[in-house]
Write a structure and sequence with these properties.
The chain has 187 residues and is an alpha/beta fold. It has helices at residues 24-33, 44-49, 52-59, 89-96, 103-113, 126-129, 134-143, 164-172; strands spanning 9-15, 36-42, 81-87, 118-122, 147-149. Helices cover 35% and strands 16% of the residues. Strands 2-1-3-4-5 form a 5-stranded parallel β-sheet, with helices on both faces. The longest helix is centred in the middle third of the chain and has 11 residues, at 103-113. Mean pLDDT is 87; it is low at 1-5, 152-158 and 183-187.
Length: 187
């Protein structure tokens, strides 16, 4: 059963290029059924893996992969929450370092600073999670307020084990109120 549109909350979905992103349709249905109005914001590499037209049709919103130009209006409504799933080693480490050179990273940096709730579901090879930058960066994001799902909920060799249910549950546990209104730097 789909939630009443009046109860919908805005969820920015940062989608990274890892195998679980290919299961986006089932994940989108779960999220929408739980009252989320989805705004898909795939990384540039993830966008090359996806049918952006189908993604826009399912979410009901244009899919953005590039920052808007200064003269363009911001079509994104303020977010109630952000989902980064799957979150790759590359995106996680760049974000924790404050790198701001893509739309996805720019939004993540701004919204973390504005204390908008963020759920991160990692998808990293064990060899990469053993890298010395990984653990301190996960901890840095957690200390800043992000909820990071790891272990059996997300790190897996097969993307079929990636738990969209655990992600849905983590999002359901977020506070219901709308965080502070945000506007991007160019506004």
């Amino acid at each position: 059963m789909t939630a009443d549109p009046q109860d919908a909350r805005v969820l920015y979905w940062i989608m990274c290029a890892a195998p679980p992103v290919q299961d986006w349709q089932a994940a989108a249905r779960q999220l929408q059924d739980n009252g989320w109005e989805l705004h898909a914001l795939p990384t540039q590499t993830a966008a090359s893996w996806l049918d952006l037209g189908s993604l826009a049709d399912v979410t009901g919103h244009a899919v953005r992969t590039q920052p808007r130009l200064p003269h363009e209006t911001d079509e994104l409504p303020p977010a109630n929450a952000v989902l980064v799933a799957p979150a790759t080693f590359n995106t996680l480490n760049q974000w924790a370092a404050g790198i701001n050179d893509t739309l996805a990273l720019g939004l993540l940096n701004e919204l973390l600073g504005l204390k908008v709730p963020i759920v991160v579901a990692t998808y990293c090879k064990p060899a990469l999670t053993a890298h010395p930058a990984y653990r301190p960066n996960v901890e840095r994001l957690q200390q800043a307020g992000a909820t990071v799902l790891e272990g059996e909920h997300s790190i897996t060799v097969s993307h079929h084990g990636f738990s969209w249910t655990a992600i849905r549950d983590a999002l359901a546990a977020l506070p219901r109120g709308r965080p502070a209104h945000h506007r991007t730097v160019l506004d």
